[in-house]
Amino acid sequence: MRIKATKMDGCGNSFLVVDEMRTPLAGFDRAQIANALATQHDTDGILYVDRQQDFPTMRIFDSDGTEETMCGNGLRCATRYFRDAYIPTDRFSILTGDGKKDVFVHDGLVEVNLGEARSYQQIDQHLHFVFTGVPHVVVIGSSLDEETARAVGRSLREEKSLCEFVGHPEGVNVNFIWRDEESISVRTYEVGVENITQSCGTGSAASAFVASRVFGTAFPIITHSLGGKLEIKDNDGHLSISGLTRYQGKVIGFVNTLHPKSVSPTFHWPRDYAWLSM
Ligand SMILES: N[C@H](CCC[C@H](N)C(=O)O)C(=O)O
């Protein structure tokens, strides 16, 4: 089967947007499709965008085919996609695995509100945990190269006792942060991608949250990653991330999958998209 998708990135964190309003996938194995497409097009994840009772929705699958509840940079790309393709307003909301998120396009940037940082705990002098839609460990240290971040990130992500201790035996993302004058630098090892990515939105938000507590850094906080910078704001306890998104072009992916044997009748939405002028 052939699947059309749009390649995008948010600060270098790369995704394929698969538009299920144009390519209905009910009954197909989205995990298998995600794994195949991410491998063919070298992306960190796949974003399935759709509508549910007239509400824009986004599902995120990592490149290994696991589904996650949230992805900050993915949500920023999905926001831009919905705004440009369907929703002629700059402020709306998108339903995600972590609930409804308010999103905002302004001054060429895309800002998404991730909600409150949850389950914060200090594990030891240098190690913190916080949930910003997905679980993040934040390691406070000094500047380190990509190779070291990858090696240490992988070993922490694979440390069963740590993952169980923070309540996420399935694995945690690991962020290394250090102070960078008024801002912070972040390198994130992402579970599901099993590598350092160019940027991680929820990881940058988690890192800023920890930096504000540990270093006393005042919001808004600029985070620098390999792929660029994000601005993290604290709006009455709700963290938002803002930064650039880019289109990389249209692509086609191939998946060796059979059509599902029986699918509940697929309802094809009318193409007038009047619902989107909310
Ligand atoms: N890159 C994403 C986070 C994905 C996290 C995911 N890899 C996980 O399995 O938790 C972001 O921008 O927030």
UniProtKB/TrEMBL annotation:
The record marks 136, 190 as: Could be important to modulate the pK values of the two catalytic cysteine residues. The active site is at residues 71, 200. Keywords: Amino-acid biosynthesis, Cytoplasm, Isomerase, Lysine biosynthesis. The keyword Oxidoreductase does not apply. Pathway: Amino-acid biosynthesis; L-lysine biosynthesis via DAP pathway; DL-2,6-diaminopimelate from LL-2,6-diaminopimelate: step 1/1. It comes from the Bacteria. It catalyses: (2S,6S)-2,6-diaminopimelate = meso-2,6-diaminopimelate. Its EC number is 5.1.1.7. This is Diaminopimelate epimerase.
